[in-house]
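The methods section describes the discrete structure representation at length, but only in general terms. Each protein is reduced to its one-letter sequence and a matching series of backbone shape codes. I believe one specimen quoted in the main text would settle the matter. An entry of this sort, consisting of the sequence and the corresponding backbone structure tokens, reads as follows.
***
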Amino acid sequence: MHYNTGHHPHLTVCDIDGESLLVIDPDTVFWALVPRGEDINSKIRQEILPLYDRVKRECEEEMQVFRFKSSLAVIYMNSVSRCNLNCSYCYIPQELRRSHQQLKKEQLFVILTKACEYAEENEGGRKLTIVFHGSEPLLMKEEIFDAVEEFEDKLYFGIQTNGTLFKEEDVDFIKKHGVSVGTTLDSPYPEVHNSLRKTWSGEGTFEDIVEAIEWFDGYQRLNVVTTVTNQNVAQLPEMVSFLHDRRVPSVLLNPVRGTQESARHLMPDNKALIKYFIGALERAEELTRETGRQIIVGNFANILVGIIAPTARKLMCDISPCGGGRCFLAIGAKGDVFPCGEFIGIKEYYGGNIFRDSISDIMDSEPFRMVRGRIVEKIEPCNACAFRNICGAPCPAEIHSMQGNFCNPSPYCEFYEELIRFAFRIIARDKLRYYLNEDALNGLEYKYRLGE
């Protein structure tokens, strides 16, 4: 239950647990935790309001810039339309994954040159990040590796792959050039993983992916993505243990998107998702305490950063407007551009073609403006939620596909709210060091602190 304090129109008090109350300004994510048993009204009047009044202007300005003026940082290159797998929940339409569209090396280099020129003209030369993404980028491995060698001084690179096409020498190349890598594993049990992530002929992929993960052997730029469904949700704590045993530094536990109809019957129940996701977080903490070696759950870490340093978060799905068409865009195998990979195949969100249109014109296209115009202030009941600028009501593509109007709350609303409450409990109990890596914590300094 969220309720207004009565002392200031912007501050709200809400329950966190039996030990703490939260005082928060939802617009700026200014917050303070107050132990239960203290006089909350006196605490607000005597300590919290004076502090809030001192820092609110700066917090407002920072949040405004972060939400509405953050510039392009990442280009997702969906440079191959086809895929060697037919995963049960893929967000890319099956007919597209069966096709054989692929950028030629010359076309790829044209796009990368265009990205460099855009950064030089609009971002003061700041390096953009290029992520080679779905369907399966390693189907054009040679061209991608050539691009990394040619442009690594001008661009950062990442590869998001199903992991089945890796050779050991590919891993050596990636480590040598410092490329970030995301690969996918959905269960510590082969039969469960293979039922979700399989080839077109129905063969499983578990052994190939685990072998590739072991080749990386603790590489700090490796991230394993587990797509959470009703088939594997109860295995999330075991998944964290399995990956920790294989020296994986980071995992994303991503609830499956309902963008495609085929994925919707796999969406997990919110209550089960809450239970086992938090169980996975607690397992990660336990393993860190026991071994001294962390495994970070990246999407939860981003929520924590969204609380303690709101404008420092990196995953831009959980802020409104989201990063689609603003901080990132996705380019398909024919050069068609969409605000995000989740929109690929949804014609209403086609923003132009990279070979015909400038990046600036694409960013200013009506579909991109529509996505940037989706803010929590327009969504009920999100516009009254204390956590609205921590959660951001993702994902517009999913909600558009499921409900036809993307100004609606997320089907995972209950899950996000409870996860944010859990994040505040972690902060209240001084456990951040188990959930964020040392570099993230060392890079922060206090803007304000209750009692100082």
